[in-house]
Specification:
single chain, 255 residues, alpha+beta, 4 strands
Length: 255
């Protein structure tokens, strides 16, 4: 249930703000916004070159690990690469490719709230949806392989190509989504506001949630007009009309 690319770019001293915005928009305990599980990428803010493509069942926690907010071995995250980047550049690009909250997996942050279970008797492993994890790996493999096919090598911070199944499913057309991860030009797949802007503006978050439904249909093969028509039929708030009235689609992201 993927569909929306949300971008931002941050200075080293602003890592906590990005983590807070992720927790607001992709919180595993919420039924609104987006799921905590998704794809993410780091990219050079100045050249738009993609540096790394990864997956996470908890985007907030993974960002914290990569940026040293939560400590872990350098072998298990990209803190070394990120620190090296910040010795040369002021801002680092960061994007997420997110899913509907209907795709939210059971993780340590929500299992006991959702299921009212005794933590001494049940753990996350008892409820892990292996198919959901495999789907994440497949999309990651598709993205990394489509990048490799375009350039002949993996993104510089990626050491392997991801899921073999995902690599087999990759097509030339998949690179358009990968390219949009770091491209700041307007696209139907990309939010018109940054990660941090959406986190503090419920109205813009509502707009992008409406568009997420449109995008999901498009990624399943519908054209834009058909997807909009289908989504508008169940939109009692007249969100699309409201967006047109304020010129939402004329806005270019500023990060």
């Amino acid at each position: 249930m993927y569909g929306t690319i949300i971008q931002d770019a941050y200075k080293k001293e602003h890592t906590q703000k990005i983590a807070a915005a992720l927790d607001e928009l992709c919180n595993p305990n919420d039924s609104y916004g987006w799921a905590s599980a998704g794809l993410y990428t780091y990219w050079n803010y100045y050249t738009k070159k993609i540096l790394y493509i990864g997956l996470a069942v908890d985007l907030t926690e993974r960002f914290q690990q990569h940026n040293g907010i939560k400590k872990m071995s350098e072998q298990g995250c990209k803190i070394k690469e990120i620190n090296t980047y910040f010795t040369k550049y002021d801002k680092l690009g960061f994007s997420i490719f997110v899913q509907s909250p209907l795709s939210q997996p059971v993780i340590s942050k929500n299992i006991y709230k959702w299921h009212k279970l005794d933590p001494n008797k049940f753990g996350v492993k008892d409820f892990v949806n292996e198919q959901a994890k495999q789907d994440l790996r497949i999309v990651e493999g598709i993205f990394i392989e489509s990048y490799r096919r375009r350039f002949g090598f993996y993104p510089p911070w990626n050491k392997v190509g991801g899921s073999i199944d995902g690599q087999k499913r990759a097509t030339e057309g998949n690179y358009q989504i990968v390219e949009n991860l770091s491209n700041l030009e307007p696209s139907i797949l990309n939010s018109r506001y940054s990660l941090r802007e959406l986190a503090i503006n419920p109205t813009f978050e509502r707009y992008e949630n409406f568009l997420h439904g449109v995008r999901m249909l498009m990624l399943r093969g519908m054209d834009l007009n058909t997807s909009l028509h289908f989504s508008r039929k169940s939109d009692t708030l007249k969100t699309y009309e409201e967006m047109l009235q304020i010129g939402y689609f004329n806005r270019r992201i500023l990060i």
